[in-house]
Amino acid sequence: MTPQTQSHRPATDALKPMSPLQARQTRTFIDGLASEARPYWDMVEIGDELSRDLHLSAELVILYSDGVEDFNPWYEGWRMNSWHIEGESPFGGAIVPPLLVSHFVLSVQFDATRPFSIGSIHTYHDSEIVEPIPVGATVRITTRATEKFEKRGRRYVRHAVEVTDVNSGLLYFRETRDILSL
């Protein structure tokens, strides 16, 4: 590498905290994760239930659809020079992409009020779409730990998930998922 090329190369320190205060705060955060983190197996008891509400806005549907490149006229849409087009489906108005809610299950399972969970891998899920979810609905995602088991020397926690309408209680979606834990 020539001296000229070397001078135009970004310094690797540019990616690290630059002030002593930032370095201390980062180290404190990382040390806290290491001291409080526990295997998911140890953090969850059978019967533990968590839930959160999620508003399925047209903007969320558009962002999700764009991210997974699922451009279906049944969902909300957009086109050049027009931010929003009403979606239409055989169920009437626009519906939510069926697996969008599955994407948010982990944000419910991993409770932000508990210490950080280490060594968790989502290994299995079986989804059942019961009813189409209309765009604009607010749903409650509920996850309940139903079983702990070992297979080939590895520990797993199984969860039952239900997604229901906050207002009517209508069941939209059901899922079983396993998490492998250290």
Structure description:
The structure is a single chain. By secondary structure, the chain is an alpha+beta fold. The protein has a domain at 38-57 and 97-181: Hotdog Thioesterase (Thiol Ester Dehydrase, Chain A, Roll). 25% of the residues lie in helices and 38% in strands. It has helices spanning 3-7, 20-36, 40-43, 58-68, 100-103, 105-109; strands spanning 38-39, 49-55, 77-79, 82-85, 88-89, 92-93, 117-118, 120-129, 138-151, 154-165, 171-181. The strands form 4 sheets. Strands 2-9-10-11-8 form a 5-stranded antiparallel beta sheet. Strands 1-7 form a two-stranded parallel ribbon. A two-stranded antiparallel sheet has the order 3-4. A hairpin with a 2-residue loop joins strand 5 (88-89) and strand 6. The N and C termini lie far apart (45 Å). The model has no long low-confidence stretch (mean pLDDT 84).
Write a concise synopsis of the structure shown:
This protein has 182 residues and is α+β, with helices and mostly antiparallel strands.
Descriptive terms for the model:
alpha+beta, single chain, two-stranded parallel ribbon, Thiol Ester Dehydrase, Chain A, N-terminal of MaoC-like dehydratase domain-containing protein, 6 helices, HotDog_dom_sf, globular
What are the SSEs and their pairings?
Elements: H1 3-7, H2 20-36, E1 38-39, H3 40-43, E2 49-55, H4 58-68, E3 77-79, E4 82-85, E5 88-89, E6 92-93, H5 100-103, H6 105-109, E7 117-118, E8 120-129, E9 138-151, E10 154-165, E11 171-181
Parallel strand pairs: 1-7
Antiparallel strand pairs: 2-9, 3-4, 5-6, 8-11, 9-10, 10-11
